[in-house]
Amino acid sequence: MALPRANWKGHIRFGEVTCPVALFTATSSSERISFNILNRKTGNRVRREFVDSVSGDVVEHDAQVKGYETSNGRYVVLEPDEIASAVPDSDKTLAITAFIPCDEIDDVYFDKPYYLAPQETGEDAFALLRDGMKEAQVAAVASTVLFRRLRTLLIRPHGDGLIGTTLNFDYEVRPADVAFDDMANIKIDKEMLDLASHIIGTKKGAYDPSKFDDRYEEALAELVKAKVEGKPFKKIAAPKASKPSDLLQALRDSAGAAQKKSTNRKSANSNTTRKTAANSGKSKSAGSSRRKAG
User: Fold this and answer.
1) 3-state class of 74 per DSSP?
2) Which candidate, 135, 152, 155, places its Cα nearest to that of 144?
3) For residues 110 and 155, is the Cβ–Cβ distance under 8 A?
4) What's the average model confidence in pLDDT over 261-271?
5) What would the pLDDT profile of 123-145 be if each residue is shown by its tens digit?
6) For the chain, how many structural domains are there in total?
């Protein structure tokens, strides 16, 4: 497999120790289905253009400039070199400012993950940092300029390397009460809570990302296939939300179904064990007969 192109190269520094590292994007959307915008009448692809909102004239790329609106219809123009000069100086160094417990940062601050790998001559110092953090069970907080922005990263051991997750700034994260303030103060009945706890207990497991499929992408692929082949496509009905009056019965039904499934699974496992034991007994009996015959 070809080595992916690094998104950023620089150094990571902790104390007086520095080692060269390369940063790679950990996630990719390139495998997703993508669409083109077409002219419905002609079937041709359309081209996006920037148009002057007053004159209606097309504005070519070289004539476009960024602006910040100070009042209705009034803008301050910002030239590219002015914006570049305002970006903090970068010496291409991920400077670690603190080591913290791995679970100290609320994941609402997590932005995008990147793999960090050592470059040539930096393997020893890199391994020292990685194994030192594993031993101490800590993560590192560092900052540098990435993609023309000053970014804070949470760096953690990940397999043979490190993973650096860019963090949202405090002003970028909305307070939770924006979403939850209007929620009613509801007291859940004990029977309902017990049933919910039972259902949760039957669903306990471990997270395996390979077992989760992108059903949206699969549905799009099936839709595209049906359109190409000229076949009808069956629409999937949206699930109905449980009404408050039906919630208790829905919980009882769910608990019963979960109990039945668990019983069937135990029965199947028991049958498998008995069959295995029976087959083992037959093998031993056959072996004994052959020995006697010999």
Assistant:
1) strand
2) 152
3) no
4) 59
5) 999 999 999 999 999 999 999 98
6) 2
